[in-house]
Design brief:
Blueprint lengths: L2 H6 L4 E5 L3 H13 L3 E5 L2 H10 L4 E5 L1 E2 L2 E2 L1 H10 L4 E6 L4 H9 L4 E4 L4 H9 L15 H15 L4 H8 L3 H9 L5
Parallel strand pairs: 1-2, 1-3, 3-6, 6-7
Antiparallel strand pairs: 4-5
Helix pairs in contact: 3-4, 7-8
Amino acid sequence: MSETAQKIGPDKSLLLLDDDEAFLKRLARAMEKRGFEVRTAESVQDGLAAVREATPAYAVIDLRLGDGNGLDVVEQIRERREDTRIVVLTGYGAIATAVAAVKIGATDYLSKPADANQISAALLATGEDLPPPPENPMSADRVRWEHIQRIYEQCDRNVSETARRLNMHRRTLQRILAKRSPR
């Protein structure tokens, strides 16, 4: 039996909720190899149905889904089972959403792209132990670019409004938006 499988405990149930089908399938296979009993869902509605059917011991929930917010599923899990270890995943690593996720019951919060090793480490971390830092975290330029893109999308792709909210000159923002994303 692997070291990961020994840490999981008797209830190995894991719910994976993500609307990226390819990522979901890869992650499900990887987590099954680590000893979890995986159920998958691709929408908030499917996730809520899976929780009502059998509340898992572990959950990995994407924050932004096609039909709503993954935090709704986190709340439902927390109402039904206090000991579930929940990791929230998102492509938009913002402090405000991290705080909201933890306040309603998430155990940890990871930015995409996160691999199966990072996710299982976060799920199985005990006490005050922090999981090890990622091998290749996003660069500061990439984090800045992601933040600007998120605000730009939230402002319905309006450059002037985005520049105003970011307290940035409009021409500077246009130059940033015209460039490719940093690595």
